[in-house]
Protein 1
Amino acid sequence: EAGVAQSPRYKIIEKRQSVAFWCNPISGHATLYWYQQILGQGPKLLIQFQNNGVVDDSQLPKDRFSAERLKGVDSTLKIQPAKLEDSAVYLCASSLEGREAFFGQGTRLTVV
Amino acid sequence: AQTVTQSQPEMSVQEAETVTLSCTYDTSESDYYLFWYKQPPSRQMILVIRQEAYKQQNATENRFSVNFQKAAKSFSLKISDSQLGDAAMYFCAYRSGYTGTASKLTFGTGTRLQVTL
């Protein structure tokens, strides 16, 4: 069974630029999560989708972050404009409803 | 809101020895799940073990076992016969067991485990 796929693995951008991350969940998983992991901290949920609807986006900085999950499968997380404090690893995870989450390898973003 | 605390930023263990990583949590819910995830340098979070709060029996997975103390809200991970491949960041995580609510994981700050020869 293929795991959660994320791209790119690494991204370096200048502050005020925009960036997008892509996630392809495990086939059949209706729930998709985006987590932000700042260096030295545990992951923090940014947004959770159930199929293509948003379940929880209370921690998403909506003035600069946006996410979508078209057709309830792939998802894209965008940051525009990026700030220095957005430097982090962005992890995507998916799960069957009510079951444990499986994570991708993440995207390491560096904002300079 | 639920919180998860890992008070050991770093731990070290010799190969073949046993090590215990500590985790405490705070919640007012009675139905929940607790997890230990391993994060190697590849960054992928790998599930090590899970515990349902309603189960009194401690979960075990091969060399990994937990000591779940519900009243004390403590959830420690014991790694027996440590191997070099066990070296990683270990995160304790909490998830509500109630359906109809967001099933997000709340993570601790992690413990870096070093395994020495």
Protein 2
Amino acid sequence: AQSVTQPDIHITVSEGASLELRCNYSYGATPYLFWYVQSPGQGLQLLLKYFSGDTLVQGIKGFEAEFKRSQSSFNLRKPSVHWSDAAEYFCAVGALTGFQKLVFGTGTRLLVSP
Amino acid sequence: EAGVAQSPRYKIIEKRQSVAFWCNPISGHATLYWYQQILGQGPKLLIQFQNNGVVDDSQLPKDRFSAERLKGVDSTLKIQPAKLEDSAVYLCASSLSSNQPQHFGDGTRLSIL
């Protein structure tokens, strides 16, 4: 069974600074990998996904993530954070074959300081 | 396109009462999911439908939770009777097919007194 670890519960970043959120996964085969963002009182919005191919994937809102098989990681990055990026970020892993079943990490709450 | 619609947005009930949530997926999406998100945790899959058939309900507490997706479109999730530990946000998601990204609704926040 797959699992996801997001080691940082909270991260505070100054507005305009760069951001990296960590995600490590465990899965025996090639995974689907996702990053979702959740603002208070709202559902999850897909930021980006990795299925195969180029290991550096671009998403919405200026986010990108890099799949590193050797490290079982899929870290999310953004070069310059905006105050509106403050939210909860979830990494998820899904099976590549059969019916998709997503397993989510516990999330990282991003705080943006002025 | 219209997103995934859920109602109600908030529900407060006493323990041992029953409650039902409704979800209308994105038009044409064959796969529908119900998740439970407890405060401070990531969403946990409760049940997955492919059209009107259940694909995965391995984590659904079947003694108190039930779900149906009649006609392969709308879905309802029911809890009867509710327990204190059922306090959570219940998220519905849908996808075009089983291997496509999931789109989430805003959820129903359930509080059990």
